[in-house]
Amino acid sequence: VTVVCLPSEEAVHEVGPLPEAVRTVIWDGSRRTPPGVEFLVPEYPGGAKPDLSGMPELKVVQLLSAGVEGWPELVPDGVTLCNGRGVHGGSTAELAVLGLLAVLRRLPHYLRQQEQGVWEPGVGEGLDGKRVLLLGAGDIGEHLRAAVEVFGAEVTTVARRARSGVRTMDELPSLLPSADVVVLALPSTPSTNGLVDAAFLAALPDGAVLVNIARGRLVDTDALVAELQSRRLRAFLDVFDQEPLPEGHPLWTAPNVILTPHVGGGTQGWQRRGYRLVREQVRRFVAGEQLVNVVSEGY
Amino acid sequence: VTVVCLPSEEAVHEVGPLPEAVRTVIWDGSRRTPPGVEFLVPEYPGGAKPDLSGMPELKVVQLLSAGVEGWPELVPDGVTLCNGRGVHGGSTAELAVLGLLAVLRRLPHYLRQQEQGVWEPGVGEGLDGKRVLLLGAGDIGEHLRAAVEVFGAEVTTVARRARSGVRTMDELPSLLPSADVVVLALPSTPSTNGLVDAAFLAALPDGAVLVNIARGRLVDTDALVAELQSRRLRAFLDVFDQEPLPEGHPLWTAPNVILTPHVGGGTQGWQRRGYRLVREQVRRFVAGEQLVNVVSEGY
After folding, report:
1. What angle do CA A91, A93, A97 make, to 5 degrees?
2. Cα of A2 to nearest chain B Cα, Å
3. Which residues does chain A have within 8 Å of residue B107's beta carbon, measured at their own beta carbons?
4. Confidence check: pLDDT of A241 > 90
5. Cα separation of B299 and B289, whole Å?
6. In this complex, how many residue pairs, one in chain A and one in chain B, have their CB atoms less than 8 Å apart?
7. Touching A: B residues 148-187, CB under 8 Å
8. Of all residues in chain B, what percent carry a pLDDT higher than 70?
9. Which residues of B are less than 8 Å from A90 in CB distance?
10. Confidence band (pLDDT; 50, 70, 90) for A182?
11. Within 13 Å of residue B48, how many CA atoms lie on the same side as its CB?
């Protein structure tokens, strides 16, 4: 019998029928470790990371998030770590498109006019012909690219690994000066944190839009605040290097920026997609098949 | 020599080089009619319609708008009327996607939180799995369908003419009760005006979103206001049966609705697309080829 550990009754319900040789236990990470667990699905969205030292039989940690920060260090040798690629990517890209279009077409301006009962149509900007520099070729990036291309944007994808149709990070200096929009859809790693610093921002043309729906630590916030306050750049931000964004933080009152409180992945329906992934992964694990979404191979 | 009449110096510049046998004149509709005009491009966006009776040699009226209201009656026998299909469709669909996503993901709510410096993430709705009923299979509809399908929406297209993959208007009663979103992308005609009446709206499920980026006359505004005020339905509206929307109109203060002042087509870049179409149509006309975007054949 394979013991699969899920975070809640709701998760058990959503996962639905599992192979016969599986026994399910529920653990939210806070209480005594259940015995014999081989396949663990931690709580999502998670708070403090659980202590895995009491799970000597653990083989797989299956996250429901795309980001894995803190997990590779936590997962013992011999344990495979898988992420939730595909669960939130569409939803996060959707928020990026919403935020980008809201900046370009000045939705906050029109919402204020609506509150005041004022009718003053203006000429907005559309995506047609806009040069979009997309940093990240994962699930979020693929959705975002497809959506903005429908409206005529010209997308250049930049990723950490060279591959067909994708530019690499060392080409950024030549790409930034002609980018109308930069979308950050990269994981936060030691090599990507702080990537968007003062020099990166200074290389962008006037009026360029920075969209960050990935991780706040990718951006030097002070440098971005300076570019917003001078009204040279514009931004849509769903993530921040400190979350919640502290009271009185200059971003709250900066011009040219739309903020949302890290709601990119949090739409109704993620459970359905997330636990469909879990069901499939458990099936593969029990059948001895190769897992998908593997971040680090352990066994 | 073929005389082509354009609305402005800017239009002449944007159209660029035309065939040798073409002479260009400029007329904004307000002054004396220039002589010998065979191909007319009226001003866009136009105000009062021009008097065409002083153009006995007229063969083609090429509009820069998709909608043709008022023109078929105005264009004399023997004159072909063409519209601007393709010029504004992407831009209009883009606004529809922005407005729909802003409603589903509650952007106005988060913008108020931003103004107040409040961080309160909530669970929003995404397009994934949403059943979108799209009325209209033209240029706007095609762009909208492609964009929302990227995010997992299930689109059913309804049009006036039966064709493959498209449902017809008489099927609406069976389609409305399962629509999470209805997008109006139809022209205003005697048969479509008032289509969205109290019975149409009553057939929609609770919480459904009406998106109108087409024409205000398609909707019975009083019936829609009643559904918004009871908070049963939600809406994004860019067009109204009276424009500008009058001061004190109940839509200004209705709940559950986002309004913009008819800015769907008005993005930077329409000139490039519009006058590219004009250049191609003039080329076809001079070469004796079939025109595109023909609304009514005249010669």
Report:
1. 115
2. 33
3. 98, 102, 107, 260
4. yes
5. 12
6. 158
7. 150-152
8. 100
9. 126, 128, 150-152
10. very high
11. 7
Q: What is the mean pLDDT of residues A90-99?
A: 97
A82 within 8 A of A62, measured Cβ to Cβ: yes
B245 at A interface, C-beta within 8 A: yes
Residue B279 tokens read as: 């250049």
CA distance B166 to B203: 20
| B18 close contact with A: CB closer than 8 A | no
Helix-helix angle A89-104:A139-150, to 10 degrees? 40
Binding-face residues of A in 250-289 toward B, CB within 8 A: 252-253, 258-263, 266-269, 272-273
User: Cα(A122)–Cα(A60) distance, rounded to whole angstroms?
Assistant: 55
Chain A residues whose CB is inside 8 A of the B272 CB are: 129
Contacts (Cβ under 8 Å, ≥6 apart) of B255: B228, B229, B231
- Cβ-defined contact of B123 to A97 (cutoff 8 Å): no
Asked if pLDDT for residue B46 goes beyond 80, the answer is no
Sign of CA dihedral B190, B196, B200, B202: negative
Amino acid at A164: S
pLDDT at B164 over 90: no
Chain B from 88 to 127: CB within 8 A of any A CB: 90-91, 93-95, 97-98, 101-102, 105, 107-108, 110-111, 113-114, 117, 119-127
pLDDT score, position B179: 98
| Close Cβ partners of A13 (under 8 Å, ≥ 6 residues apart) | none
Tell me the C-alpha distance between A198 and A213, whole Å.
Answer: 19
Which residue matches tokens 């949302």? A260
**Confidence class for position B44, pLDDT limits 50, 70, 90:** confident
Tokens of B297: 């054949």
What pLDDT was estimated at residue B67? 84
Question: Closest to A119 (Cβ–Cβ): which among B245, B268, B269?
Answer: B245
- Chain B contact probe: residue of A44, A103, A105 with most B CBs at under 10 A: A105
The one-character DSSP state at A130 is -
- Using the beta-carbon criterion (under 8 Å), do A268 and B151 form an inter-chain contact? no
